[in-house]
Design brief:
Blueprint: H1 2-29, H2 32-58, H3 73-102, H4 111-139, H5 144-150, H6 154-182, H7 187-215, H8 222-233, E1 238-250, E2 253-262, H9 268-285, E3 289-299, E4 305-306
Parallel strand pairs: 2-3
Antiparallel strand pairs: 1-2, 3-4
Helix pairs in contact: 1-2, 1-4, 2-3, 2-6, 2-7, 3-7, 4-6, 6-7
């Protein structure tokens, strides 16, 4: 957690400085695409503040109002971040770009924009490489898309998508700004702003989709559920696993509910011992499973289940 916070703090400081520089350069050169990039960096800065807040809230210990803890705070604030990327980043950039396409303004002293873009690319590129390196350590040989879908920590793939969108946005702005300046086609500057906005909207939809899935109660994968089933049914007192229900409370906490059929001859003491034994076995095998609730069923002499 400390390592994650450190990387977010670093990105926060960098994005804040980059945003201020872009706005100043955009104001001096009448560049709508540079203003759009300034908006992009400002949104990124706000997003990192929200992620830090979500991370802080998510580690708050359980209490009488939240008996399973506050882990889902991170999922909620990650979803808010995706909305901000869409509204404050994408829609504003597209809107401003359309305005400058309809009423183009000639760039003044574009050299300042090139300097700012170059510096921004260095900082954003370095941050993106760090994000790639850290995500590579967690995806365990999976493809990028599968790793993102399977990831239960939105702060990881949010930073990855934000940095990737930032680098790609800078390339778009640089190419169209060069064309606009050299071909004397100032509307291309507005087009760059529109393209950056569309990029942010696309990213926001992906992030919203993944954050919503986690917020709505995403559970363990079918493969993990099958392993849990095999582990539980290996206990001599268990006849069968009737149902497995699970949900991620946070990236490191899973709530698991098992409905089990036990041998009919078990008395209350034996049943309690079997439940405790199975619970400890699951927790020892799966560190993420912090809460295990077991609902027993028994079988009478006719083979019918009794809840």
């Amino acid at each position: 957690m400390a390592k994650a916070n450190k990387s977010i703090y670093s990105a926060l400081a960098a994005n804040l400085l980059i945003a201020v520089t872009k706005f100043i350069a955009g104001a001096f050169t009448n560049s709508s695409s540079m203003i759009a990039e300034g908006i992009h960096s400002t949104v990124d800065t706000s997003n990192q503040l929200l992620l830090l807040y979500g991370l802080k809230r998510s580690i708050k210990p359980a209490d009488e109002y939240r008996p399973f803890g506050y882990g889902k705070e991170l999922y909620f604030w990650s979803f808010i971040v995706s909305i901000m990327i869409f509204g404050l980043g994408g829609v504003l950039s597209v809107s401003q770009g359309i305005t400058h396409i309809r009423h183009p303004e000639t760039l003044v002293n574009p050299g300042w924009n090139y300097i700012v873009l170059a510096l921004s690319f260095v900082f954003e590129g370095a941050s993106f490489m760090v994000a790639i390196k850290e995500f590579n350590q967690t995806r365990k040989g999976l493809s990028w898309w599968k790793a993102i879908i399977k990831s239960k920590d939105p702060s990881g793939f949010l930073v990855l998508f934000e940095d990737g969108a930032a680098v790609l946005g800078l390339l778009i702005v640089f190419i169209l700004m060069v064309l606009s300046h050299n071909l004397n086609m100032p509307f291309l500057d507005g087009l760059a702003s529109v393209l950056v906005g569309i990029l942010l909207i696309f990213v926001s939809f992906i992030l919203a989709r993944e954050s919503r899935s986690l917020l709505m109660g995403e559970g363990l994968s079918p493969e993990t559920q099958q392993k849990l089933k095999d582990l539980t049914e290996s206990d001599p007192d268990v006849v069968a696993v009737k149902s497995i229900l699970s949900t991620y409370q946070s990236p490191k906490e899973v709530l698991l509910i098992l409905v089990l059929t036990f041998r009919p001859e078990l008395d209350t003491e034996d049943l309690t011992g079997a439940i405790d034994r199975i619970r400890e076995k699951i927790k020892a095998e799966y560190e993420l499973v912090k809460f295990v609730i077991i609902q027993p069923q028994s079988v009478n002499n006719t083979g019918k289940e009794i809840a």
